[in-house]
Amino acid sequence: MKKKRAFLKWAGGKYPLVEDIKRHLPQGDCLIEPFVGAGSVFLNTSYDSYVLADINSDLINLYNTVKYRTDFFIDEAQRIFTPEFNTSEQYYLMREAFNKSTDTEKRSILFLYLNRHCYNGLCRYNSRGEFNVPFGRYKKPYFPKDELLWFAEKSQNAIMVTQHYNETLLNAKEGSVIYCDPPYAPLSETANFTAYHTNSFNTQDQQNLAFLARKLSSESKIPVLISNHDTPLTREWYHQAQLHIVKVRRTISRNILNRAKVNEILALYAGELNTLSPSKTDVLATQDLALSTQWLTDND
Q: What is the pTM of this model?
């Protein structure tokens, strides 16, 4: 089957890595994605069922609107993909309308408009929870009708929820497979990217995610695959996983012409014994347990 594209533009989307990810995803009855993003892995795999979660309620509300009101959504959204609405003045009016609206369907339609008309398809909010990405100045923004129809068809076998990753992982049932695409660790101290949602994902979250992945795979026999940048820090976080390195092309500076392939990690927790010495393993496990306990206490 030809690879299917997501209907959203998405920073860090997994479309280029879909085949690599599929090679390392174990078999199972249900694929769970706690950080679903644009959903490229969901759209290009063949599990019996899916649980797609994300902390961004706008994203999940959009997906459920497309699932349950497909024709209505396409008809309404297509009306604002015209030259009349592709101006800076109109864009900022639409962005303001989105930020002021409490109507789920209206926000969903405007979310797609903003995604396709804003700068680089970024999804970013300010401290007040307002979408604040500037106008993108594209000649003719693409309306993804075919991609919307495929998503609507595929999502009939999916449950889509606004949920913190911790809850999604802890709700996983036997027979599930989990793929995690968390906000990536920066390649350098100067390359950090502003969190796409108002809730930041910090180092403690990264370590807690690794701890929960190992716990699920070893105690519940639920395999977990995590993707991230390949850095000394991520190798430390995933020291008890099987590490697979893949190369992906990334823009690594503000100059769009300055592109290079960087290494990414696919860390698979599948319940196998790690290869660290017993003494080092015990120390690291104790540190991880303390970190996770502290995270749960702080977020109770």
A: 0.85
